[in-house]
Amino acid sequence: MTELIKQDIEQSEWYKSLIDNILDTFNHYNVTVIETLQQCYWEIGDQIKQARIYFKEAEIKADDNVLQRIAKSTGKSERTIYYAVKLNETFDKPESIPTMPWNKLIKQYLTFPNNKKLEEKTYTCPTCGKKISEEKYREVTNKAKEG
């Protein structure tokens, strides 16, 4: 008997409408949370990008792990900080980021081989501080070793 009443409720229009409204509310807030989180990470990446000039002025060398320092200072994981920077480098503005869960966004857009920017490994020139290719970096460091 209880099973029959349960089935009747689930078939009623008001119950179907209630469930639809609840699901719409969940979806709305999930999207809002995802977009807010993505914007947060994008802005963090932008702040780090803008601060690069200060790292250069402080003579922080390329072998110093800046992202690791930031992660430790903020209590966040190095991976989170790294992906925040990659998100900012990959998308020119937060509005251009596709709305999807963070782990899917990382997998589809921010990790090798999907992100072409990650394929191009660059180094900082020890003499001028500019970004250079691996080949050029080896050339410069070999010249420095030779004399």
Tell me about this structure:
It is built from 7 helices and 2 strands. It is mainly α and 147 residues long. The chain has 2 domains: 14-111, no CATH class; 120-147. Strands 1-2 form a two-stranded antiparallel sheet. The longest helix is centred in the N-terminal third of the chain and has 45 residues, at 13-57. Residues 115-120 have low confidence and may be disordered.
What is the strand and helix layout of this fold?
Blueprint: H1 2-11, H2 13-57, H3 66-74, H4 78-90, H5 102-110, H6 116-119, E1 122-124, E2 131-133, H7 134-146
Antiparallel strand pairs: 1-2
Helix pairs in contact: 2-4, 3-4
Write a concise keyword list for the protein shown above.
147 residues, mainly alpha, two-stranded antiparallel ribbon, elongated
